[in-house]
Amino acid sequence: VPALAIPVERKDEFVCPEFHVEEFEKRLPSVSQIITVGWSATEQHFLGMLGNAFRKSVGPHVLVVSGNEEGAHNTIRNLSDYRVGKPGLWLPFNAGFSQFTGGLTALRSFLGCL
Q1: What is the DSSP secondary-structure string of the chain?
Q2: Residues 25-39: what's their mean pLDDT?
Q3: CA atoms of 23 and 5, how far apart (whole Å)
Q4: For residue 95, which of 3, 13, 78, 99 is within the disulfide window of CB 3.0 to 4.6 Å?
Q5: Beta carbons of 64 and 91 less than 8 angstroms apart
Q6: When comparing pLDDT for 104 and 30, which is higher?
Q7: For residues 9 and 43, is the Cβ–Cβ distance under 8 A?
Q8: Is the pLDDT of residue 37 over 60?
């Protein structure tokens, strides 16, 4: 599985072998679900890549795990600015990572395991 280090805000390169980025871009349009944990979604280069990959599709369902409601909604807003996913397909989880992994109910529900 390719590994990818996401650049920060305005950097436009990744810290990984180029073939990892190529493989990631090739597979990205088939992604149906994204889970973010503590991510603010402010990396413009990466968000542009995501937006381009999903431009012609409905886009993935996105679960945003954040420590609070404001953080989750900021991430959703940032994703929506780049058209990553479609309105109504974003799900905020505001109770933080420990609660998220505690019973795994939210994860199982998001992945369709329940």
Answers
A1: ----PPPPTT----SS-HHHHHHHHHHGGG--EEEEES-----HHHHHHHHHHTTTS---EEEEE-SSHHHHHHHHHHHHHTT-S-TT-EEEETTHHHHHHHH-HHHHHHHT--
A2: 89
A3: 14
A4: 99
A5: yes
A6: 30
A7: yes
A8: yes
What type of residue is 88?
G
| 77 in Cβ contact with 44 (< 8 Å) | no
AA identity, residue 89:
L
Q: List 62's β-bridge partners, or say none.
A: 34, 90
Cα separation of 100 and 3, whole Å?
23
CA 108, CA 97: separation in Å to the nearest integer?
14
Q: How far is it, in rounded angstroms, from Cα 31 to Cα 11?
A: 24
